[in-house]
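Subject: Re: docking follow-up (fe (ii) ion)

Dear J.,

Thanks for your patience while I sorted out the input files. As discussed at Tuesday's group meeting, I've set up the holo structure prediction with fe (ii) ion included as the bound ligand rather than trying to dock it afterwards. The sequence and the ligand SMILES I used are pasted below, so you can double-check that they match what you have on your end before we go further.
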Amino acid sequence: MYDLHAHILPGVDDGPASMDVSLEIARAAAKNGTQVMLATPHRKDVTEDWSVDHIRSLVDELNALVQAEGLDFRLLLGMENHLDADLPGEVSAGRALPMNGSRYILVEMPFFGRPDFIESSLAEVMDLGLVPVLAHPERIEVFQQDVGLLQQFLALGMLSQITAGSLLGQWGDEVKAFTVELLHLGLAHIIASDTHSPQAPRPPGLAEGAEAAALVVGTANAQDMVLSTPKAIMENLSF
Ligand SMILES: [Fe+2]
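The structure tokens for the complex came back this morning:
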């Protein structure tokens, strides 16, 4: 499987504090069937406290450790880009990273409220030739209140990434029910882990989420959401 949303790099954001724990996440992910994972540290933390060079070197370091253990697991680099008015400029400046250098970019909408910049900033990102992949819409208030807005964004060509844990009740029954509704409505393209830790509360596995999704959309569609679709994104293909 391909996991395109993960906080696995050490000491960068609210993910693991040390490389040892990063390696534990990699082991747990590999055991669960993830072969490729996109490291997506929060843009704000990288920009304010670190640098793109720093996170690139952490990816190289972790890949070397993983390889030394013989794990069937590879880490690529992306970023979880919170949406604000600065995002398009930060993309152009190379401080907001797309997914593995592709035309796809993981975008996190504001959790609460509906600031004015949402539509204009997303449009500017798309004008740069990028396809926003909206992170966990099921946890974003504006979509919870108005699923039609998510529908509008997807009609423009954006993609939607739900989180495995949301389907398993990690964020409560309401979020779980809304995630199932998104699946029913065909408003979810990808399942990712958004892992922050080797075990609960935010483990790296996708298998359980795919099983839960299969109950709603069938096994073939659920498999696409953890394999062919995220793989195509990381390889910069269309699908
Ligand atoms: Fe995240």
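A couple of observations from a first look. Residues 2-234 form a domain with the TIM Barrel fold (CATH 3.20.20.140). The CA atoms of residues 130 and 146 lie 24 Å apart.

Let me know if you'd like me to rerun anything.

Best regards,
T.
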